[in-house]
Amino acid sequence: MDQCVHHISTDGLGSGLLNRRVAGVYSAFAQGGSAPPRALPRLRVLVAHEAAYRASARYAADRDVRLRSLATVTRPGGNCYCARIRTSTSARWSC
After folding, report:
1. CA torsion 53→55→61→67, rounded to 10°?
2. Which of 4, 6, 7, 81 has its CA 20 to 30 A from that of 15?
3. Top-confidence range, 10-14, 39-43, 55-59
4. Which backbone phi and psi does 71 adopt, to 5 degrees?
């Protein structure tokens, strides 16, 4: 099976989940059966979970940890073109 997706839409984990689901459905149909039940909840359930997390104190604490760890970054890594952005309070890298 060939897949062509933009890297922003999925990652290795997402591709693996998609491949496993397609293979399971295909195998079931090829054997005359029906599609197996979903392994993951529906998108609206995941979106509701994400919204609840983003409104929580845990999200705020997690965000603070991430921002503190990024504050020490002096140079971007990897293969991206980045620009130095200066805000009124700090400078940061944006890729």
Report:
1. 100
2. 81
3. 55-59
4. -65, -25
Confidence at residue 61, expressed as pLDDT on a 0 to 100 scale: 95
Whether 93 and 73 have beta carbons less than 8 Å apart is answered as: yes
25 or 15, which is more confident: 25
Of 51, 43, 92, 45, nearest in space to 72 by CA: 92
Token readout for 51 is: 């919204």
What letter does residue 24 receive in the DSSP assignment?
H
Q: Strand (E) positions, the chain?
A: 83-86, 91-94
State the burial class of residue 76 (Cβ atoms within 10 Å of its Cβ: 0-12, 13-18, 19+).
Answer: middle
Phi/psi for 86 (5° steps) reads -110, 125
Cβ atoms of residues 71 and 88 within 8 Å: no
Look up the pTM and report it. 0.44
